[in-house]
Specification:
Residues 203-219 have a biased composition (Basic and acidic residues). Residues 77-103, 194-219 are annotated as: Disordered. It comes from Dysgonomonas alginatilytica. This is Minor structural protein GP20. This protein is mainly alpha-helical and 219 residues long. Among the domains are: 3-75, no CATH class; 121-184. Helix content is 69%, strand content 0%. It has 7 helices and no strands. The longest helix has 47 residues, at 94-140.
C-alpha cells in the first residue's frame, strides 16, 4: 500500500488531531509502514489499531497542553505598577516569553519521549506477533516438540526485513538440526518424527545448550 493512501485511510479513522505533520509522517514511516501486513484481509485491523494508538497519543498531548496552560494561569501574577512611576506603553515581555518557551520546550521533549516509548512498545508487540506466526508455520511443518521449540525460538530474530515465512523456514532448519543433535543423529528424519522420554528431556536440553555455547552459536 502506498504511503499517501495509507496516510489518508489512517487520517479518516483518527479524525482531527493536534499532532504536527512531522510527527505524523515520522509515526507513519517508522511505526506503521515497516510492519504493514502483506495479507489484504489483515490490513484493516492493523490500521485500526494504529488509529486507536494515535487517538490516545493525541488525547495525551491535549491533556498535557491543557495542564500546562492551567498551571501557568495559576502561577502567573501580574507585576504591580507604582502609580508614581511613569506609565510604560510597551513593557518588556521577554521574561514571560522565555517562560512560555521553556514550557513549550519541556512539553515537546515529553511528547518526543512518549512517541519513542509508544513506537518501541508497538515494535516489540509486532515482533512477538511475527514470532508467534512463524512458530505456527513451523508446527504445521512438523516442528511439534515443545522442548526443541523452546530452545530454538529465542534464537530467532524477527526483524522488519524478514517475512514470517522466511523466519519460519529459518526456524524449521534450526529445529531439524537441533532435534537431530538431541535425539536422532544423522539417521533421524525431523519432520513428523518421534520423541523422547520425559526423564531424558532436561539432560538432553542441557547437553544441547552446552554444545551451542561450545560451538559459539550462542553466548
Amino acid at each position: 500500500m502506498e504511503k499517501e493512501k495509507l496516510s489518508t485511510d489512517l487520517k479518516g479513522l483518527v479524525g482531527e488531531t493536534s499532532l504536527s505533520q512531522r510527527t505524523w509522517d515520522d509515526y507513519l514511516e517508522h511505526s506503521v509502514m515497516p510492519f504493514l501486513p502483506t495479507e489484504e484481509d489483515k490490513i484493516g485491523d492493523y490500521i485500526s489499531k494504529h488509529a486507536n494508538a494515535l487517538k490516545s497519543m493525541d488525547g495525551q498531548l491535549n491533556h498535557d497542553v491543557a495542564e500546562k496552560v492551567n498551571d501557568f494561569k495559576k502561577s502567573y501574577k501580574p507585576i504591580a505598577v507604582n502609580s508614581q512611576q511613569p506609565t510604560v506603553d510597551n513593557p518588556d515581555k521577554s521574561g514571560l516569553q522565555n517562560a512560555d518557551n521553556e514550557k513549550l520546550t519541556d512539553l515537546e521533549s515529553r511528547m518526543q519521549r512518549f512517541e519513542k516509548a509508544e513506537a518501541e512498545k508497538k515494535e516489540a508487540v509486532l515482533k512477538t506477533e511475527k514470532l508467534d506466526e512463524a512458530k505456527k508455520l513451523m508446527q504445521e511443518q512438523g516442528a511439534s516438540h515443545e522442548t526443541v521449540l523452546n530452545l530454538i525460538l529465542p534464537q530467532l530474530q524477527p526483524t522488519e526485513e524478514i517475512s514470517v515465512s522466511d523466519l519460519a523456514k529459518k526456524g524449521k532448519e534450526m529445529y531439524d538440526k537441533a532435534y537431530a543433535d538431541l535425539y536422532g543423529g544423522d539417521s533421524y528424519v525431523p519432520a513428523f518424527g518421534g520423541g523422547s522420554s520425559n526423564s531424558s528431556t532436561k539432560t538432553s536440553k542441557d547437553a544441547y545448550m552446552k554444545h551451542l555455547r561450545e560451538t559459539g552459536r550462542i553466548k
